[in-house]
Amino acid sequence: MAIQLLDPAQHDDRALRGLTQVVLAGLAVLLAGLWWVQVASRRTYQSQQEIQAVRTVRIPAVRGRILDRNGVVLADSQPSFNLGLYLEELSPEFRAEYARLRPVQVVSQAGLSRFLGRSTVVTQAVRLSRADLDQLQWTARIRVASNAVVRLGRLLGQSLPFDPERFRRHYLEQLALPFPVAMNLQPEHVARLAEAGDLPPGADLEVLPLRLYPHQATASHLIGYLVRDDRSVEGEDAYYSYRLPDYRGAVGIEAGFDRELRGRAGAKSVLVNNLGYKQSERVWNPAVPGWDVVLTVDLRVQKAAEQALLRVGAQVRAAVVALDVTTGDVLALASLPAPNPNHFVLGFPPGEYDRMRDPQLRPQINRATQEHYAPGSILKPLVALAALDCGLDPRARFTVQPDPARPDRGCIYVGRRKIRDTAPPGEYDLRRALIRSSNSYFVHWGLQPGVVERLVQLGTQLGLGQRIGLPTRQEAPGVFPSLAEVRSPGWRDGDTANLCIGQGPVAVTPLQMALVFAALANGGHLLEPRLVDRLETSEGQFSRVVRRFPAGQIRRTVTLRPDHLRELHSAMLADTEDPEGTGRAAALPGFRVCGKTGTAQVMDAQGRLRGYTTWFVGFAPYERPRFVVAVMVEDGGSGGSTCAPVAREVFRALQQTGAAPDQELAMNLAG
């Protein structure tokens, strides 16, 4: 049987044609939809897809100011204009540079050539490893970014550094933040950028607070300095994706009042895409500025103290403390050499960092409070009070014997040990012994029954060998024997002799001795030294006091007989006014100074004389004491020749400022 084959082309099937048309129409709709989604709407979907995450950024608060007692600014925060590159705006250039750098090869397409009837070649990318591709991307990014930095440098008229490794770290860790190009631009540089019309993509100025110290190294030990610290403090959110540069106080007032000065950090959210580039940002928690700290220091007195020390020598190692004897206000606290706190924020100039590490200069040490020294003869006023309390007649004469080796100088023997004297041989009462600073006289009376025990009792009550509790984190307690030590079998007369001339088991700070002499001046009240007067917050053009620190706080009152104090004051006045006085260079017309000089030996580890520590401590005016000044100079000539002239200049500044003590406090202390 023959089979008849149907020719589909000749077969008329309306249903099949309809079905075919429906299928083709559906395919057309599907293709049109695909075109709309993948081509026409590609940018919209791609933009939505790229928005992937939110990053949080910690915004440091503007740090509060530090001011002197008269409102002069000692530390301030000013706007710093920093030039940066937002790398998300450079991403098209990154891709273009990557495409340009990637190697390609020419490939002949034989099949296509036969179809077209002519020779055809195309280029295609060379196959590279993943590591090679990554390295190529980094090369492209670094070239684009470095070229942008070079262009910005030309606009600023200076060469700007570019560190590829720093750029890499920033890209990996802080991509949503601008890459720092130049920090703390000068006003003329900001003007050039504002006028330029061809800035590289992504270049922008960011304003951040910058800590500045307008008086450079003046009072820098008291003020302190900052170190970089972006961590959250108590009361802030602990977690942030990024942290803008922030600082905390390391020492000084900056450290002791860091929480008050630092304020409260703010926060902003940064919307980033899947590549980590910033899309937008919003501040959702504004930063709260810190409080101002108003000190008791008078900048005029502080500068006078530092300038007087510098006249001793450019590399002088010394300290000055000036106090109000009725309130305890610290009017000057100087230590030289001193660091410039601006360098801890802006960077150290060449050679300065090595100077900071000099083992002899040690600029970071606060010699007024942080280093202790043998007091030498400035301890003799306490020895005098102890002897008076134990029955010394201030008019009684004691004969100082001549030193056989130096007949023009005196000496005293304790056992078989000879203690040399700088005073000449002859007869001495209390007044002459103090003004000539006779070692023999004070050793003799210090060895009398009960005197050393009373001396130790007085020194302990007046704070020697004890921490004061300063907020500056720069304090040494010093060294002073206890009653148990001086009563122990191991204590010898030689130890008592050393103690009575300010040598041996005793070491003090200049601030401690200033407080001791303040107590001698005000009748026996050991005051709390007051460094800070108040905390303020700025509200527009006005300031509001947040907290005030009371003046005249008494740590303890030491019982001192008024008649003994009168004898002591009279002898200390003679030290600066009598022709024989060792402190004559501290005398100031119209402002009578009571004082005492001191020169203490400094021994090395082998017991050999290494140098001298020189002192002058005094108070003025004699008739109604208002101020006390303590001066210490390492390796000075003598207390009278080196330190007394410095004290005179500080007293002169105190006299000229006219800073009167609180009259009510003065009456309370006197009563």
Automatic annotation (TrEMBL):
Keywords, alphabetical: Carboxypeptidase, Cell membrane, Cell shape, Cell wall biogenesis/degradation, Hydrolase, Membrane, Peptidoglycan synthesis, Protease, Transmembrane, Transmembrane helix
Residues covered by the Penicillin-binding protein transpeptidase domain: 319-651
Keyword check for Hydrolase: yes
Pfam families: PBP_dimer, Transpeptidase
One annotated Gene Ontology cellular component of this protein: plasma membrane
Positions of transmembrane segments: 18-37
Molecular function per GO: penicillin binding; peptidoglycan L,D-transpeptidase activity
Membrane topology: Single-pass membrane protein
SUPFAM superfamilies: beta-lactamase/transpeptidase-like, Penicillin binding protein dimerisation domain
Penicillin-binding protein dimerisation domain boundaries: 59-279
Compartment(s) of residence: Cell membrane; Membrane
GO biological process: cell wall organization; peptidoglycan biosynthetic process; regulation of cell shape
Name by which UniProt lists this protein: Penicillin-binding protein 2
Species per Swiss-Prot/TrEMBL record: Limisphaera ngatamarikiensis
